[in-house]
Amino acid sequence: TVYPDQRTASVTVAARIAKLIKAKAESGEKAVLGLATGVTPIAVYAELVRLHKEEGLSFKNVITFNLDEYFPMQPNAAQSYVTFMNENLFNHVDIDKNNVHIPDGTLPQEDVAEFCLNYERLIEEYGGLDFQLLGIGRTGHIGFNEPGSAPNSGTRLVTLDDLTRSDAARDFGGKQNVPTKAITMGVGTIFKAREIILMAWSQKKAPIVKKAVEGEISGEVPATYLQLSDNVEFVLDEGAASEL
Ligand code: GLP
């Protein structure tokens, strides 16, 4: 779906998430949301905060699982995805912090594999993801599933692509400070979500959006795997859609 601008698109996506949360609350159920970081979803989170403050949308029945985290990463670091989520969403709504899950960037490396298995298990225990929000990196990554990721991959420790580290350099005050690894949900984990929305804004994303939507399905561009699912919608502004 192509919207005239990212603000209209973001408000629409936030309204859909709010509808899901309310429907689940009315039937006494939890809403299990897979969340993304990056610049792309910021306006969606801002609108969810507005809906909480001005229209009483409650997050008491919401369980969240974030896609990824840098490794290693301290949660209180400015660049951590914990900080990002707290500042953009969690600190401003009534979510129970016990219901928030973000991959742990502080683990000793030998404990990461077990942590990842537990992350998968926990998602399943909550009945799976009702909804997954995605952005897209210029390498075609979703979460941090870089080129070479398998379609059935699970949550795991990955090595970041050079282009991804260049794109993150500004946040870290230089590429040399960007971690070389991350923990990410797998392509297979994402695929199990009952509804997936990938958002992309601006002409900068147009070439990778074209590859993701129209290109040959290949591990070289992990977002092309989304072509295999019936539960995926790309939500774009005119810039990001300009090469389709
Ligand atoms: C980051 C995140 C991804 C995100 C992507 C795009 O590295 N790990 O989940 O979708 O890069 O970021 P942005 O939205 O800032 O363009």
Automatic annotation (TrEMBL):
Residues 5-227 form the Glucosamine/galactosamine-6-phosphate isomerase domain. It comes from the Bacteria. This is Glucosamine-6-phosphate deaminase.
